[in-house]
Amino acid sequence: MRKSISVVIPTWNSWDSLQYVLGSIALSSLNRLRGTRLQVVVSDDGSTDGTERSAGELGRELGLSVVVTAMEHRGQSAAINHGLSRAEGDVIVVCDSDMILTCGSLDELCARHELWPDVVCFGFRSPTSATPGARVLDVAEGLAHTEAFSRDNRVRFHMPSFVSNMMLATDWLRALTGGRFFLDCEGSVWRRHRYVFGALFSVDRDLLASVGGMPAHMKGWGYQDTLTAARLEANGGFLLPVTSVGGHHIEHDIRTAKQWFEYRRNGMAYEQELTQEWHPLDSMVTQPGPMPATVASDPFVDLEEAMSPLDAFDVYFALGDWANALSHAAKGTERHHECLYRARDFGCLLSEPYPSVWRSMATHAVGRTRTSALAGAVLDWNDWPTTSYARTASLPELRYLADGYRRCELQECAQLHEDAVRLFDTPG
Q1: With contact defined as beta carbons under 8 Å apart, do 13 and 51 qualify?
Q2: Upper half-sphere CA count for residue 125 (Cβ side, 13 Å)
Q3: Which residue, 78, 254, 313, 354, is most buried by CB atoms nearer than 10 A?
Q4: Which residues contact 426 (CB under 8 A, 6 or more apart)?
Q5: Residue 182: inside a domain, yes or no?
Q6: pLDDT tens, 7-54?
Q7: Is the same domain home to 248 and 396?
Q8: Is residue 128 part of a domain?
Q9: In the predicted model, what is the mean pLDDT of residues 294-323?
Q10: Count H helices, E strands: the chain?
Q11: Are residues 240 and 346 in the same domain?
């Protein structure tokens, strides 16, 4: 059965690289030989660099079927899901806005989905640098037939290691069964689904819809692709590396100062979700069939409906989504107090009858005396991790951590440590 493809590209202020991505898709063999089977959806996540207008204009200039959909800035997962509401293809290819695809990559993906409907294909990438101001098609033509496999960090590991090629070491993922995983030289765990990078992967449209699309509750950068791949595999998807599928990743500056903080937060949420029972599709799947292109809202279901209140709290707490965590928190617990403090709801926290280090910090934050409250927190609740840490950490250490977070522009973390310094650097 011949399949059609929708390439969904989430983008946020990345027109400097996106234009080369569109150029490479225009030069692809699928577009040149079977262009009616190809649709490109550019999902603009609130860009301010003119992406919405420029993408449409360039698509017409290149003879490429480009649909541009714009939304307010909500993050990569939400942008992908918004783009899916306009995607009409049988197969969804998710592609980053800085990936110059090789000529035959889309054909290679399409061929596998025509054979195996449950396959989840992922390609590889190698770094490249685009010359600012270079003609779009010149850049795409120069890389169209250049392999993008050998310098991928799943193939050539980015740090010295006994194992230089993770794909070979895992027998192309076949060895990662029965809960086995790869442990890299940094001590990081690579489960099988971690090898699927959001930069370039493909999946049957109905299979992606069955897991609710991308996890929109994960804000910012990191782990959305890993969690999605885990859900797809849990729901019957077969993960397949395809060495003939690749793209040249345009190197660029980090676009958000909080990228690595978001990565750690999302990683915590991902690990938490892996411990939850996976609910297959019966209660979550949307009805099969084509989705109308006029749908404005995300067509994929909210997976929170499938989680118990405890599950939802753990995930939101790991993400640092304090407002949603509060709605699921058990009152009177340390974590409930922490959510109130981090949400800066000092009034509600001070009305709590139970002592905690967070209530003590709220007392300090509003300028009240806090000696008795602090004593209660330290003496009566010294088994709480936050209280124990605050008691044992030195003031120079807390100041050092606060300064480090401030330099990294992680203002919330810096403020938390500075509050702790002010709280504990008070006589009596």
Answers
A1: yes
A2: 23
A3: 78
A4: 364, 371
A5: no
A6: 999 999 999 899 999 999 999 999 999 989 999 999 999 999 999 999
A7: no
A8: yes
A9: 57
A10: 19, 10
A11: no
Query: pTM for this one?
Result: 0.71
User: Of 287, 270, 24, whose CA–CA distance to 142 is shortest?
Assistant: 24
Q: Which residue from 337, 80, 91 is spatially nearest to 218, judged by alpha carbons? A: 80
Spell out where 66-136 has E strands: 66-71, 91-95, 99-101, 119-128
Work out the number of other CB atoms within 10 angstroms of the CB of residue 274: 14
Q: What is the pLDDT averaged over residues 61-80?
A: 92
Among the candidates 220, 253, 283, a domain finishes at 283
Question: Reduced to 3 DSSP states, what percent helix, strand and coil does the chain have, rounded to the nearest 5?
Answer: 45, 15, 40
Structure confidence at residue 268 (pLDDT): 82
- Residue 369's pLDDT is 47
β-sheet bridge partners, residue 124 = 246
Same-domain status, 407 and 272: no
Q: How far apart are CA 169 and CA 255, in angstroms?
A: 33
Separation of alpha carbons 192 and 230, rounded Å:
8
Strands 200-204 and 119-128: antiparallel
Find where tokens 């690749």 sit.
246
Greater pLDDT, 340 or 321: 340
> Given pLDDT bands bounded at 50, 70 and 90, which one contains residue 155?
confident
How many residues in the chain? 428
Question: 265 and 234, same structural domain?
Answer: yes
| Domain CATH number, residue 58 | 3.90.550.10
| Alpha helices, H only, 204-284 | 205-210, 224-234, 259-274
Count of C-beta atoms within a 10 Å radius of residue 272: 17
Which residues, in sequence order, are CB contacts of 288 under 8 Å at separation 6+?
206, 209
Q: Looking at the structure, do residues 270 and 341 belong to the same domain, yes or no?
A: no
| Distance from C-alpha of 70 to C-alpha of 72, rounded to nearest angstrom | 7
**By three-state DSSP, how is residue 33 classified?**
helix
Of 142, 109, 128, the residue nearest 5 (C-alpha)? 109
User: Is residue 327 pLDDT above 70, yes or no?
Assistant: yes
pLDDT of 168 above 80:
yes
Q: How confident is the model at residue 316 (pLDDT cuts 50, 70, 90)?
A: confident
pLDDT digit string, tens, across residues 190-218:
999 999 999 999 999 999 999 989 988 88
Residue 339: domain span: 303-424
Q: Report how many domains make up the chain.
A: 2
Instruction: Tell me what the mean pLDDT of segment 113-131 comes to.
Output: 91
